[in-house]
Amino acid sequence: MVVSRVDIVEALSTLRAPDGTLLVEHSATEIQITADHVVVSIAIEAADAQSWEPVRLAAEQTIAEVPGVAKALVALTSQRKSAPNVPAKRALPKPTDGVPPPRFPNLAKIKRIIAVASGKGGVGKSTTACNLALSLRAQGLSVGVLDADIYGPSMPKLFNLKGRPTVIAGRTLSPLEAYGCKVMSIGFVVDADKALVWRGPMVASAITQMLRDIAWGPLDVLIVDMPPGTGDAQMTLAQQAPLAGAIIVSTPQDLALIDARRGVEMFRAAGVGVPILGLIENMSYFICDECGKRHEIFAHGGARAEAAKLGVPFLGEIPLDSLIRERSDSGMPIVIADPDSPQAHAYRDIAVKVMAGFQ
Questions:
Q1: Are strands 294-295 and 314-317 parallel, antiparallel or unpaired?
Q2: Which pLDDT tens digit goes with each residue over 300-358?
Q3: What are the residues whose beta carbons fall under 8 Å from the beta carbon of 204, sequence distance 6 or more?
Q4: What's the rounded Cα separation, in Å, for the pair 41 and 339?
Q5: How far is CA 180 from each of CA 40, 99, 332, rounded to the nearest angstrom?
Q6: CA gap 116, 353 in Å, rounded
Q7: For residue 45, is it left (φ>0), alpha (ψ between -120 and 50) or beta?
Q8: Which of 182, 167, 39, 42 is nearest to 107 (CA)?
Q9: Cys-Cys link to 315, which of 50, 69, 194, 278 (CB 3.0-4.6 A)?
Q10: What span, in angstroms and rounded, lies between the C-alpha atoms of 35 and 267?
């Protein structure tokens, strides 16, 4: 059965906002329908969140009962005041430091949250985040991966995971697991073939709910695969998650490095002073299978030079390699499929440097 906006509006027609007005007349209510999934975003004043929570729960339950709806999500959103453009000093946390905000108790047992970001798409950020997480797991650490790339979730494919998270209690979900890592992605709860046409507040709300409502349990490291760019989603994570640091992935050419520089500055100016753990140069070079000659297709050394210019560590180079691509497409990343290969060693060397930064 096809679900329409009319169906949802009709179902919500009897619900009222805290001030007594009809919910469907609330001008800041947005409805997004993707196949059998319905997401409703209600913009409110932050101070009114407590009084709106019963309305949110009632709306979510009402929508879930509409014939044809498989998944219902109602989110309360509010505009955040811009933080002053002054980086706050923040030391790299020790395992016992970095207590999460009280509103995210499910993050309380995670020792470090590390964002893997890029200033632009297409630089191999998700593949890098996946293999970095698995490399940390190979060191004996307990690791989780949060796929926060709302518009282009890749972790279900990279980890060869299908199905939906299990509801533990209320809105709390249990992450899926593969190769010893816990994984959560918006790709587990939306249709992979449908485009998400979400505005900024809805994206920010979805990310907040993935931070708040996932039962990660005790973890040494949570790797967050950030969306590309420097927009609402990135700022939400930088300001609401207790990030221990950020890693920037770039290719060597000047156009990519310009965006990588913006990524660094975003974290520095996010109002929370997120430390930059370093830059990674992906697709750094190509070794020809036939002749063994090295080709620097996108130039070479740009990320190393940029790291020196910005005063941040350079973590390493990852080659442009068909084996990395093939293993990623098959859902068995290179670190798992060929752990003794030079490509896997490149990721593991980066993981060692990342953890050394916390010593």
A1: unpaired
A2: 666 778 788 878 888 988 888 888 888 888 899 999 998 988 889 999 999 999 988 76
A3: 77, 232, 233, 235, 236
A4: 44
A5: 34, 25, 13
A6: 14
A7: beta
A8: 182
A9: 278
A10: 36
Tokens, residue 340: 């003794």
Q: What is the dihedral of CA 104, 105, 107, 112, to 10 degrees?
A: 100
Nearest to 49 by CA among 168, 273, 212: 212
Beta bridge partners of 184: 146
With beta carbons less than 8 A apart as the criterion, state whether 136 and 143 touch. yes
Structure tokens given for 275: 């430390």
CA 45 → CA 29, 41, 49, 52, 201, distances in Å?
Answer: 13, 13, 7, 10, 13
Place of tokens 């992979």: 192
CA distances from 223 to 115, 142, 197, 285 (A): 6, 11, 26, 26
Confirm whether pTM is higher than 0.70. Answer: no
Structure tokens at 253: 């050419």
Residue 326 corresponds to which tokens in the numbers above? Answer: 């093939």
pLDDT in tens, 158-168: 999 988 888 88
Residues of the chain with pLDDT under 50: 79-103
- Cα 59 from Cα 167, distance rounded (Å): 19
